[in-house]
Write a structure and sequence with these properties.
- InterPro entries: Ferritin-like, Ferritin-like_SF, tRNA-Hydrxlase_MiaE.
- This is tRNA-(Ms[2]io[6]A)-hydroxylase.
- It comes from Runella aurantiaca.
- The chain is mainly alpha-helical.
- It has one domain: Ferritin (Up-down Bundle).
- 74% of the residues lie in helices and 0% in strands.
- α3 runs antiparallel to α6, α5 runs antiparallel to α6 and α5 crosses α7.
- The radius of gyration is 16 Å and the shape is globular.
- The chain starts with 13 loop residues before the first helix and ends in a 9-residue tail after the last helix.
- The relative contact order is 0.20.
Length: 196
């Protein structure tokens, strides 16, 4: 079983400083990331209802992601910020370009799980950076708690993949996607107004 995040490329350490200068924007983007995470889990349940273990594991994750959305809203309101409109998530859009959407149902299922795992892994890594380096003490605690939760969600997706498909196949595809994600990270602009 894969138990470490294993990202191939760490976030540029300058990201935290840039994000801290755009706190309202990063919180707004984060709120929408949590909303999209809940929606992605619901979509998995809707598309693969025959997979009982998936439904069992994803149902509480939906509730947790939505609770995180509400927590981020609270942080926004506490600071006098408004939610604003959703932004284009270039990171997620680029990941979606490399996943299988048609063809073998098992391969489509695997890619959907692993892309969710990748997004959770990158979020977890960024939450860790914020929890260690942001000046706002209450946000440090906030992001530390979220980091622990996101790491659990990452494991959920990997473990579900290995529940339904051979571990070797899961590991091989995971390695491919990790390399592709690292390439995407290298080509994206370093933005402090985006969580990814």
């Amino acid at each position: 079983m894969i138990t470490t995040l294993g990202l191939e490329l760490p976030t540029d350490p300058r990201w935290v400083n840039i994000a801290e200068m755009q706190l309202e924007q990063i919180l707004v983007d984060h709120a929408y990331c949590e909303q999209k995470a809940a929606s992605a889990c619901i979509s998995m349940i809707v598309h693969f209802p025959e997979k009982e273990k998936l439904v069992e594991v994803m149902t509480p994750v939906v509730a947790e992601e939505w609770a995180h959305f509400r927590m981020v809203l609270k942080e926004l309101h506490k600071r006098g910020y408004k939610l604003g409109r959703a932004r284009k998530d270039e990171y997620v859009n680029r990941l979606q370009e490399i996943v299988k959407k048609k063809g073998d149902r098992d391969e489509v299922f695997l890619d959907r799980l692993l892309v969710c795992a990748l997004i959770e892994a990158r979020s977890c890594e960024r939450f860790k950076l914020l929890s260690q380096h942001i000046a706002d003490e209450s946000l440090r605690t906030f992001y530390h708690e979220l980091m622990v939760s996101e790491a659990g969600h990452y494991r959920n997706f990997i473990e579900l993949a290995e529940e339904y498909l051979p571990a070797e196949k899961v590991r091989a595809r995971w390695k491919e996607l990790l390399l592709a994600e690292a390439h995407i990270m290298k080509t994206l602009d370093l933005r402090g107004d985006r969580m990814h």
